[in-house]
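Structure (tokenized):
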């Protein structure tokens, strides 16, 4: 099977397509040849399956997107849209009429929820708006899915499989600016043992501002509540702004527990930094979503708390008083993350990707042969 993938020469495109290069040998073993393109050309639709990356189309104006998709629909036998956004929300369902499969990095377990509109485009933004009356300066809308489109929604993979070093390697970043992608599987993470001595109870570095108050709420509330706990706790709790990345990673390597609230999405690169640093990850409960690989098993690989923070202090103080439990969870989270980046993880990725491609082909065949009832 020959697969062409239209990505983009930016960080989002690099992270998302990295496993296609890192695990190219495992894909070849299953008979899949994947070629990544950073811009359209005339040969792009000449393949068995054409993959369209949302990160590329995000660079286009609304007037450019639909004509380009329509042109590919006329030429390509099978089309898969890859939604690379970090949230279960923010879908671009305008692509639905032009694609056979809509593959998304993070998917709501209850697919029927995609037929309704969320305030702020995200289910948690909608929750804080409804629960506390928090309003954004500008309300954003996107068209929801139609009931008959729900069958097209599939689960792709999350950014945890990307090369984390690109965030902090100036040579790789310069290469991206010139449209270059590293073709080799050069990412070798350097984990710190969760069982090493750690003298920081909690580290939470909050940086960046969000123009959506509903999105900023969790990070602001995490900071506020941790500051209150720090004032009374005998444990060392760091709750401050950002520091240089190297210092931040060193701090995490000496930290027992690291909170990671939602931002533009439910998960973030912060989660993967925490896994590799060997700290225990704590997040608001993400039981509403599916992602692959599944790094998030409550009270096994991460420590959840309620969205309304009703149990936040109890969860945090319980972790600080039970360091061995934190260490066990940190170890399990790190082991699962590293497994996904290993050779065996590559084989699992190849199987997952192959299943998506064959599912898209079946959907395309069914669509071509289906006839409405008289």
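Design, position by position:
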């Amino acid at each position: 099977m020959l697969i062409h993938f239209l990505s983009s020469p930016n960080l989002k495109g690099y992270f998302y397509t990295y496993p296609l290069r890192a695990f190219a040998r495992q894909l070849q073993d299953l008979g899949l040849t994947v070629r990544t393109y950073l811009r359209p050309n005339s040969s792009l639709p000449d393949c068995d399956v054409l993959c369209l990356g949302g990160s590329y189309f995000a660079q286009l104006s609304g007037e450019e997107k639909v004509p380009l998709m329509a042109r590919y629909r006329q030429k390509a036998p099978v089309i898969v849209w890859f939604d690379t956004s970090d949230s279960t929300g923010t879908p671009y369902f305008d692509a639905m009429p032009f694609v056979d499969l809509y593959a998304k990095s993070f998917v709501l377990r209850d697919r029927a929820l995609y037929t309704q509109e969320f305030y702020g485009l995200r289910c948690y933004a909608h929750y804080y708006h409804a629960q506390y009356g928090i309003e954004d300066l500008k309300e954003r809308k996107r068209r929801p899915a139609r009931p008959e489109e729900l069958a097209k929604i599939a689960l792709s993979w999350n950014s945890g499989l990307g090369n984390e070093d690109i965030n902090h390697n100036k040579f790789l970043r310069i290469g991206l600016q010139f449209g270059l992608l590293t073709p080799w599987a050069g990412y070798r993470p350097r984990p710190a043992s969760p069982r090493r001595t750690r003298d920081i109870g909690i580290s939470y570095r909050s940086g960046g501002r969000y123009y959506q108050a509903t999105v900023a709420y969790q990070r602001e509330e995490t900071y506020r509540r941790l500051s209150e706990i720090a004032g009374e706790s005998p444990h060392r709790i760091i709750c401050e702004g950002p520091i240089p990345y190297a210092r931040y990673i060193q701090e995490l390597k000496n930290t027992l527990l690291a909170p990671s609230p939602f931002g533009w999405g439910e998960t973030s690169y912060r989660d993967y930094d925490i896994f590799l640093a060997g700290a225990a990850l704590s997040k608001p409960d993400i039981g509403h979503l599916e992602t692959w690989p599944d790094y998030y098993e409550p009270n096994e690989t991460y420590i959840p708390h309620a969205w309304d923070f009703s149990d936040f202090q109890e969860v945090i103080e319980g972790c600080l008083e039970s360091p061995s439990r934190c260490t066990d969870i940190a170890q399990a989270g790190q082991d699962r993350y590293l497994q996904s980046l290993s050779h065996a993880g590559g084989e699992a990725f190849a199987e997952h990707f192959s299943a998506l491609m064959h599912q898209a082909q079946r959907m395309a065949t069914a669509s071509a042969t289906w006839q409405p009832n008289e």
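Reviewer-requested clarification: Residues 200-341 form a domain with the Rossmann fold fold (CATH 3.40.50.2000). The chain has two domains: 2-183+343-369, 200-341.
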